[in-house]
Design a protein that fits this description.
The complex is a heterodimer of chains A (about 110) and B (about 110). With about 110 residues, chain A is an all-beta fold. In chain A, about 0% of the residues lie in helices and about 55% in strands. Chain A is built from no helices and eleven strands. In chain A, the strands form two sheets. In chain A, strands 2, 4, 5, 9, 10 and 11 form a six-stranded mixed sheet that branches. In chain A, strands 1-3-8-7-6 form a five-stranded antiparallel sheet, with no helix packed on it. With about 110 residues, chain B is mainly beta. In chain B, the strands form two sheets. In chain B, strands 2, 4, 5, 6, 9, 10 and 11 form a seven-stranded mixed sheet that branches. A four-stranded antiparallel sheet of chain B has the order 1-3-8-7, with no helix packed on it. Chain B is globular, with a radius of gyration of 13 Å. The termini of chain B are far apart. Classes of the chains: A mainly beta (about 110), B mainly beta (about 110).
């Protein structure tokens, strides 16, 4: 069915450390995945995306890894900063459908 | 380029009333999607419009409806409001030939 789940609802890391946020998806027909960041009082902000024909994609301080064998997605944030504190959502799009299926979100807290 | 704008930002209504929310997409974006965000259910897809036609629809009752105008601006309407309709309603627009969705700040609806 259409469902995207997250392993952990909260994650706390020390400023400067790396963080990894995980996500499991269930629909093998999903061919596009996006990570969003949502700060309090704001709408989700696009971070990085990856297509199903890729295993890894890197951006500025962020890396997304996709393991299609176990239907697992992760977001790695390097050298975390206080501004990285937010709720992070993974979302999937099933081929041919212009709609995002979101996970429940992980709240990332950066400790000084 | 201006981002997605939503009006109003905050709204308080009573049960039984109806409400109309507005969304202006990023210039050049023709696809507009609507999502409901609640603490319990997370982000859930309502519907998506493209060129004034509803292209995708989520699993919401018929009280939730929408439309899109020729300038790509979109409105969503909720009739006979219920307490459970209290949520943050997010609008997102997509550029042509892309799955990327850019979100507005949302409209916070409170039903009393």
């Amino acid at each position: 069915g259409e469902s995207v789940g997250l392993h952990l609802p909260t994650l706390s890391v020390q400023e400067g450390d790396n963080s990894i946020i995980n996500c499991a998806y269930s629909n093998s027909a999903s061919d596009y995945f996006i990570w969003y960041k949502q700060e309090s009082g704001k709408g989700p902000q696009f971070i990085i995306d990856i297509r199903s024909n890729m295993d890894k994609r890197q951006g500025q301080r962020v890396t997304v890894l996709l393991n299609k064998t176990v239907k697992h997605l992760s977001l790695q944030i390097a050298a975390t900063q206080p501004g990285d504190s937010a709720v992070y959502f993974c979302a999937e799009i099933i081929q041919g459908a212009q709609k995002l299926v979101f996970g429940q979100g992980t709240r990332l807290t950066i400790n000084p | 380029k201006a981002g997605v704008t939503q009006t109003p930002r905050y709204l308080i209504k009573t049960r039984g009333q109806q409400v109309t929310l507005s969304c202006s997409p990023i210039s050049g974006h023709r696809s507009v999607s609507w999502y409901q965000q609640t603490p319990g259910q997370g982000l859930q897809f309502l519907f998506e419009y493209f060129s004034e036609t509803q292209r995708n629809k989520g699993n919401f009752p018929g009280r939730f409806s929408g439309r899109q105008f020729s300038n790509s601006r979109s409105e969503m309407n909720v009739s006979t409001l219920e307490l459970g309709d209290s949520a943050l309603y997010l609008c997102a627009s997509s550029p042509p030939w892309s799955y990327e969705q850019y979100f507005g700040p949302g409209t916070r609806l409170t039903v009393t």
